[in-house]
Amino acid sequence: MSDKPYITVVVPVYNEEPNLHPLFERIYPVMQRMGRPFEIIFTDDGSRDRSIEILKELAHSCPEVRVIELNGNFGQHMAILAAFEISRGDIVITLDADLQNPPEEIPKLVTEIENGHDVVGSVRQKRQDTFFRKFASRIVNVTTNKMTGMRMSDYGCMLRAYHRNVVDNINRCQETTTFIPALAQTFASNPGEVPVAHAERAEGESKYSLYRLIRLNFDLMTGFSVVPLQLFALMGILTSLSSVLFALFLIVRRLLVGSEVEGVFTLFAILFFFIGIIIFGIGLVGEYVGRIYQEVRKRPRYVVRRVHGQENKKQN
User: Fold this and answer.
1) Which has the closest alpha carbon to 214: 124, 290, 143, 286?
2) 119: Cα separation from own chain's centroid
3) Same-domain status, 63 and 140
4) Count of domains in the chain?
5) InterPro entries per the record (predicted)?
6) 9 with 39: CB under 8 angstroms?
7) What domain range is 250 assigned to?
8) I want to staple 78 with a disulfide (CB 3.0 to 4.6 A). Which of 141, 228, 269, 302 is the partner?
9) 257 and 242: one domain?
C-alpha cells in the first residue's frame, strides 16, 4: 500500500456477521475494476456477534482493508467519523453493511465527484422497505427540509460520496451528536444527487427502531436549526393574543347574557390543549439544553480500542 489511495470506502458495522463476507465479495471486485488505488475501512461499533473476528480476518488477508475496533457502541455516525479521521482518499464513500444499497453503485458516485460535485447524495429507487419505514423516512425528509432549509431528497440513505475537502472540514468539527449527511451539506458548495438501486435486507434486522428514528429527527432539527424554537415562540404569541380575545368575548357575553356554567368542559378541553403545548415546548427547550450539556462536558465522542490492518503494522 505504498500508493496513497484515491478512493476510501467507509463501512460502519454493528452485528452484521452474516452480511460481511457477501459484502466484501461484492465490494472488492467493484473497487478493483475501477483501476484506482483504494482502501476499505470497516468500523466495528461494539458488535456482540462475530463481526470483529471476520473483519480482522479480512484485514489480515487483504492489504487494502483496515478495521477500526471501537470500545463500545457509539452509534453509526460516530463509527463513520472514526473512519473519516484515518481515511486518506481524495474521494470518500460511505456505505452500510446490510447490502440494501448495492456496492455496484459506487462508480456512479465517484463519477459525479469527478464531474465537480463536492458532496453526492443518493436517492433510493423502488425502496424494498416496509410501509412504516418508507412513511417515517418521508416524514423525516419533509420535516428536515422545512426546518433546516436544506434540500436533500433522501436523508436516510448512507450511500454517499464526499470530496476530501468536505471530509477535512467534518473532521474539524467536534460535535457530540451530529448527522453526517446534513453536516456535509453545510460545507458543500456544489452538492448533487444520483438515483441508486435498493434491495431487501438479506440477513439480520434494521438497527433503526421507532425510537431511534424519532431521535434522528430530533437530532436533525435541533442540531442544524433554531426554527423549532422560533416556531414555538410564534405559537406562544398567537396563543396569548387568542387568550386575550377569548377573555374579551367572555366579558361581553357575561354583560349581555349573564353568568352561566355552560361550556365548562369545553374550557377544560381548551385548557388541557394549551397545557399540552406548554409541555411540548418545555421538552423542546430541554432538547436544546441537553445538547448544550453534552457539548460542555467535552467527553470523547468515541473510543478506539485498536486499528487492525497491514498498513498499521508497517507504521508500528
Assistant:
1) 143
2) 15
3) yes
4) 2
5) Glyco_trans_2-like (IPR001173), Glycosyltransferase_2 (IPR050256), Nucleotide-diphossugar_trans (IPR029044)
6) yes
7) 227-297
8) 302
9) yes
For residue range 96-148, list pLDDT tens digits in order. 998 888 999 999 999 999 999 999 988 888 776 666 666 766 766 666 666 66
Residues 115 and 188 in one domain: yes
Q: Note whether 165 and 234 are same-domain residues.
A: no
**DSSP notation for the chain:** --SPPSEEEEEEESS-HHHHHHHHHHHHHHHHHTTS-EEEEEEE-S-SSSHHHHHHHHHHH-TTEEEEEESS---HHHHHHHHHHH---SEEEE--TTSSS-GGGHHHHHHHHHTT-SEEEEEESS--S-HHHHHHHHHHHHHHHHHH----S-TT---EEEEHHHHHHHHH---SS--HHHHHHHH-SSEEEEEE------SS--S--HHHHHHHHHHHHHHH-SHHHHHHHHHHHHHHHHHHHHHHHHHHHHHHH----TTHHHHHHHHHHHHHHHHHHHHHHHHHHHHHHHHHHT--S--EEEEESHHHHHH-
Based on the domain organization, do 256 and 204 belong to the same domain?
Answer: no
What are the pLDDT digits (tens) for 26-73?
999 999 999 999 999 999 999 999 999 999 999 999 999 999 999 999
Q: Are 173 and 32 within one domain?
A: yes
